[in-house]
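wait is this the right file?? whatever heres the structure
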């Protein structure tokens, strides 16, 4: 609203003040709960005020069409939902006998339809629906706004807005990239950019026709069964190395080329230029290292140290060592041999491991031999990525804990709640909504959305 209603608010407050003070007894005893009671009162005021305004607008647009030769044919009332509660609005149907056509001005000009929701209500429903289950969101909505709304309405609001959120994230990152390409050689950019990437698995399900002749009890339709799969969602972040608070997140259920491409856009959004040094921390997923190398220039990849230690434990297990012996073997390797890795002396460690493999081949099972050989190849592949002492001296992280933590409050908080099963086609659009919040882009997105569109019922 463009006008300042301070004078009107002052008068209304004076009226309410005198009414409350004269009608309520023992106000001194109600001080602790007084604001809650006033909030209920303000909700009633908001609901009545909205009802009056919408009734006035309905009459006005109906009168405008009547002056154009249309006559009211019938006067149905529709139920419209606003932040304060449901409102009944008269929505006349008008007919022009000469033109042989009808019109519904309340629907066409005001965008009010039966079961429709205001933009403010939509925003409130989506805010709640992307943080918890739809049932929990419905309960919390009632606590916050004082009236009930069905969880299915919250679900419809979220599902409707999610693809547009995904498109907004994509376009915003593309916009940053376009500006970067224009000023590729002249842009000063940030000196050092840190990127991290990690994945987690989300439970998905697709209903398919069951291979039986059984029918459902109520509607007598062929029964279906749900095929469950766990699919990997990859989340990445980019930020200036010196600033932990300024981050751009990306998330996608897709293969590495597309995810890393988004990560490049996120790095550009954080000030990456051709001169920037890029430090990437991630695990040794197949194809990830090569994909980062191909899409980032001036890249130093850092293998997540915890991931390396996990490989050591898996090797010990494959060698057939018992639990305590396995632990001692890994500890010995960590204390004695991992010092070589930390110091960047991977080749010396590889020589020791291959010597051990050659001498002990008679006592090692084929499975253990294969696993130890795999460890050697693994260390060889990442030999330039495990100079941990030097990385620490440069102030670089040697673990991907920052992005692993982000998994808990970006995809997992909503997509991995107990009992949740998602259709694969809905995951990326939901991730778009979650990324809007993580990047603090939610208000910008909603402002653009409000300016260009209205949500139908």
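ok assuming it is, sequence goes like this
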């Amino acid at each position: 609203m463009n006008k300042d209603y301070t004078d009107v608010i002052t008068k209304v407050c004076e009226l309410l003040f005198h009414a409350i003070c004269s009608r309520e007894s023992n106000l001194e005893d109600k001080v602790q709960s007084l604001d809650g009671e006033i909030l209920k009162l303000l909700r009633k005021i908001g609901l009545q005020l909205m009802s009056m305004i919408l009734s006035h607008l309905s009459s006005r647009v109906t009168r405008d069409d009547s002056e154009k030769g249309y006559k009211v044919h019938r006067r149905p009332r529709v139920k419209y939902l606003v932040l304060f509660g449901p409102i009944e609005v008269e929505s006349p149907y008008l007919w022009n006998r000469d033109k042989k056509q009808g019109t519904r001005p309340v629907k066409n000009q005001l965008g009010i339809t039966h079961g429709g929701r205001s933009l403010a209500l939509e925003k409130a429903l989506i805010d709640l629906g992307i943080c918890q289950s739809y049932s929990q969101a419905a309960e919390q909505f009632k606590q916050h706004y004082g009236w009930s709304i069905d969880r299915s309405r919250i679900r419809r609001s979220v599902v409707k807005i999610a693809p547009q959120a995904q498109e907004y994230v994509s376009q915003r990152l593309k916009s940053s990239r376009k500006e970067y390409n224009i000023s590729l050689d002249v842009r000063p950019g940030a000196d050092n950019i840190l990127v991290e990437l990690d994945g987690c698995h989300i439970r998905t399900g697709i209903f398919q026709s069951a291979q039986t002749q059984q029918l459902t009890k109520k509607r007598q339709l062929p029964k279906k069964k749900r095929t469950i799969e766990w699919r990997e969602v990859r989340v990445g972040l980019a930020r200036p190395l010196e600033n932990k608070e300024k981050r751009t997140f990306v998330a996608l259920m897709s293969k590495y080329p597309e995810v890393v491409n988004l990560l490049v856009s996120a790095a550009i959004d954080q000030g990456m230029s051709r001169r920037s040094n890029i430090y990437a921390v991630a695990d040794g997923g197949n194809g990830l290292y090569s994909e980062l190398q191909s899409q980032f220039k001036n890249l130093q990849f850092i293998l997540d140290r915890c991931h390396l230690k996990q490989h050591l434990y898996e090797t010990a297990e494959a060698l057939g060592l018992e639990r305590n012996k396995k632990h001692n073997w890994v500890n010995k390797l960590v204390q004695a041999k991992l010092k070589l890795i930390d110091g960047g002396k991977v080749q010396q460690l590889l020589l020791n491991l291959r010597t051990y493999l050659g001498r002990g081949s008679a006592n090692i099972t084929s499975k253990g031999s294969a696993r130890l050989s795999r460890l050697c190849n693994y260390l060889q592949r990442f030999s330039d990525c495990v100079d941990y002492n030097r990385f620490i001296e440069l102030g670089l992280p040697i673990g991907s804990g920052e992005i692993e933590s982000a998994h808990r409050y970006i995809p997992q908080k909503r997509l991995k709640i107990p009992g949740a099963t998602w259709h694969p086609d809905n995951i990326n659009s939901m991730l778009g909504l979650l990324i809007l919040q993580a990047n603090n882009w939610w208000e910008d997105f909603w402002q653009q959305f409000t300016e260009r569109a209205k949500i139908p019922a």
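Residues 217 and 223 are 9 Å apart (CA to CA). so i think its the right one actually
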